[in-house]
Amino acid sequence: MDILFLLIPLSVILVLVILGGLWWAIYSGQFEDIEAEGERILHED
Hints:
This protein is mostly helical and 45 residues long. 76% of the residues lie in helices and 0% in strands.
């Protein structure tokens, strides 16, 4: 039972870190033009 006092806050912190990383990726332009990157790899010489 004591382990829950450790695991619950750690899981909340982990969720916040994941959401923060997703927020950063969205607002820094990581998902702006997904198709162009796939085509760039195929047409690269």
